[in-house]
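G., the chain you wanted modeled:
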Amino acid sequence: MIEKIEYSDIPEDFVKQAEKARASFMIGDGVHYWGYYKAGNLVGCTCLVAFKNGHGKIKSNFVLKDFRGQGIFTKLNKKCLSFANKIGLTNITLNCLPDCARIHIKSGAVVYLEKKTIKYLVYRF
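Predicted structure as tokens:
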């Protein structure tokens, strides 16, 4: 089940695991989080930063290791993109590892820059 959450709803141990995997978290105006819950426990989350100029940035997509391969990442990403479209964002950028990039590309993102271990992508609405 996906719910809109606040940064304060994310357990500290989840944040630590996510940060080890290079996920980053933010607090402030225009920062939106969604969490995916299984049996009442947060097992995945995504973060979107919406800027006032119609642009956005996905800052985090993270699913706990034991829950990967179940479509959670894709569901969270769809929720994030749907919200971005609803609030009128025209494009969303993100940078991620190649494994995550494949999922974003399937969802419509386009690679605009590629480095050795990082891909930079954009969604356009």
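The chain has one domain: 2-89.

Shout if anything looks off.
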